[in-house]
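hi support,

uploading two proteins for the ticket. first:
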Amino acid sequence: MMLRMKKYLAAAFIAVTAVSAGLFAAPAPSKWLSTVTVTAKGAHILGNPAAPKKVVEYLSYTCSHCADFEANESPAFKAQFVATGKASLEIRNMVLNPVDLTAAVLARCGGKAKFFGNHKQLFSTQSLWLGKTKNISAATQEKLKAQDYAGFMIGTFDEIGLGPIMQQRGITPAQAKACLADKAAFTAVVGMTEAGSALGVRGTPSFLINGVLQDHVHSAAELAALLK
């Protein structure tokens, strides 16, 4: 399965360059938006881990619809459901290409306390760094072909300008590159993608509610209708 993912990542590079629960001590409801837990599979959950409605969002950092959801729909959804403890929001990666892989691993840098801020930062600056994929050098692309994924991600980090973007999050280039070389982070992101494919996730963003894939739900309004 990992070999299949590696072949998929290599093939998907061409496309992206063209585009240039248990028991928990319950905090007060006002604290849910700063409550973050990490699952055994490495996904990040925002909000009440014991919420009656558990929402999972499968996303890609190179997906424009995902960026739009994060900027324009997610805030109201979080205010209505996550802040009140009615629902939790779990973020899982659905990696679409190697540049997406770079961003997904980078989002994890700094641990769970940094994750949702990194997540927002990468989406809010998506047009800046995604538009620079044409700058990815032949040498960096060769690392992808050689399955040197850490080398590819580190080269991409430099060449599409992710360094200054992550410095705004208090993460130095050296720290970011150490994160990109973290095999556990790579394995978690690829594992979530493979699990999503097995569940039938075919596009991003896609949502699960209490473990059930909602095939035709792609907006906060559609989610809200199912959570009330």
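and the second one:
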Amino acid sequence: MSTAQGANSDGAQYFAQGIGLLAKNLADDVMHCLECGFDSTTERFYVYDDGVWRLNGGRIEQEISRLLGNRYRTTHTKHVLDLIRYSDNAARITCKPLPQFINVPNGMVDWETGELLAHASQYLSTVQLPVEYDPDATCPKVERFLEEVLPPDCIEFIWEVIGYTMFSGNPLHAAVLLYGKGRNGKGTLIRLLKALVGERNCSAVGLHELTENRFRTATLYGRLANLAGDLDSRWVANTAAFKAITGGDLIQAEFKFGAAFDFTPWALPVYSANKAFGSADSSEGWVSRWTVVPFPNTFGGNEDRNLDSELHSAAELRGVMARGIRALPMLLKRGQFQEPESVKEAKEAFVAASDTVRGWISEQCTLDPKSWQSRTELYSAYQLHPLTQGSKLLSGREFYNRLEQVSGIVAAKRQGTRGFKGIKLGRPAPVAQDGTAPTAAPGTLARIHRSRW
């Protein structure tokens, strides 16, 4: 029997004359009453409760106070916590993903088989969704909502996204952008995902905050999803942090009043935006990570104010979980989202709107391996194009570096003049159905040229 079970209310058994506090005895009894763990990365304590390891939140300190009774002093706490920190009986918490299972209140779901297993502290799971698993549950209201706000070819695809949001880890190196103007269901879907995953398992770090606020970045630690709505259209000057959190790389963060620490984020970023946000980075590492979900319909003035409460009912959420989990095995076996045509088109539109150089090339240039154009001519044309008006104009050096990132375009000199091979100004003339080039009224081409450049 532990001394805790026969403890006196004054805690006398934890003190010895001439020695003082018997800290080891007290620590052992605390760990008998609570299953304790310690995370050496963030120097934080955890307690196992109802199938999941949760941040201590003062529970260990409360247990120390309860056992010591009137003899409790705040100085005692540090001695006991130090012993728990190094005890072999304390679990070593890492806050790493647990990709085999989805932790829910009624057990551990093996998403590959649909089997529900019993909880166990040995899983070291620090994330538990707030929704009970019922493989037979349905969600007719959520299904109707998705059909109203998404293109028809997006329905099966969005269930892969929902399922992946519950998955522990981001092996696809993906980021999801809900994209479309106005009030069209993006925020409703973000809130639905938050209700499904659980607020304590989510962060909400905006794209710009990743590089501007080291404290906000720390909230990604151990989180399942990063759900941030209504991104602004400010220029994204630095994409390194975004590529790190989606690429499985180490980043450095810091909790307020704590030491800096390094960790590998695995939260799935899900953002929403009304407008595209420009970036000087148009590399494959930036563009390829985005999965863009189109929201083409607007419902201004017709919002159902009770919609969230209806979609977030326990019955609907159980159905959302069941449907999302069923989509996971095929997705992870395939290793990528199976994007329908509407998603591909939405990404093309987003990239063109956010990358002025790419949009300018598609509208005003021809990619031809035999062609060559001087770089000053190209930059002058870029500066005058309507796409660059009202957005951040790249400097000459940025523009030239960006051109070299485009497949097929290489820097090359001709007769001492610096330029680029593989590109030329002007689009090919359209061809009529009879195979001939359509004629234009005198002066038309000149007017078009002036208006475009």
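thanks. also noticed: The chain is about 35% helix and 20% strand.
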